[in-house]
Design a protein that fits this description.
Layout: H1 11-16, H2 19-22, E1 28-33, H3 35-39, H4 45-49, H5 55-63, E2 66-68, H6 73-76, E3 80-84, E4 90-94, E5 100-101, E6 104-113, E7 116-121
Length: 127
């Protein structure tokens, strides 16, 4: 299903100025919401976040979807853990029945990238 693949350079990542950061050497683990996940945000929230005056809020949300290091699904299978995201906030991962991070379900795991791994999730996490 094409809609589950994260775009190569999502509008939000470009607006936040994070393209170079996330293209850096890493390694990173990114939990990438689907396009449908962004569409589920309350009306107008994404458009508001894309405005230049809200860049700090957008960066905080986007960096809440990544962590330093490469974490494959097999590395956490059967575990519950708390991890520090790139924005320095904590998130809870539950990999005891599938994988969820802060209630967002991983719907496609272990997509290899040159500087880490991507896991596609079904909702946008708000810190």
């Amino acid at each position: 299903n094409r809609s589950q693949a994260p775009p190569s350079k999502p509008k939000a990542v470009s607006a936040a100025g994070l393209v170079d950061t996330l293209s850096g050497p890493g390694p990173f683990t990114v939990f990438a919401p689907t396009n449908e996940a962004f569409e589920k945000l309350p009306g107008g929230l994404l458009d508001s976040l894309l405005k230049p005056e809200n860049k700090k809020k957008l960066i905080n949300i986007l960096t809440y979807h990544g962590l330093s290091g490469k974490v494959m699904s097999a590395d956490i299978s059967g575990k519950k853990l708390e991890v520090e995201m790139l924005n320095k906030s904590m998130a809870n991962i539950d990999a005891t029945m599938g994988v969820q991070i802060n209630g967002s379900k991983v719907i496609k795991a272990d997509i290899m990238a040159t500087n880490g791994v991507i896991h596609v999730i079904d909702s946008v996490m708000l810190p």
